[in-house]
Amino acid sequence: MNDDQVKGRLTDAKGHIKEAVGKAVGNEKLQSEGLADQAKGTAQKTYGDAKEDVKDAVKGR
Question: Where is the composition biased (Basic and acidic residues) (predicted)?
Answer without folding.
Answer: 48-61
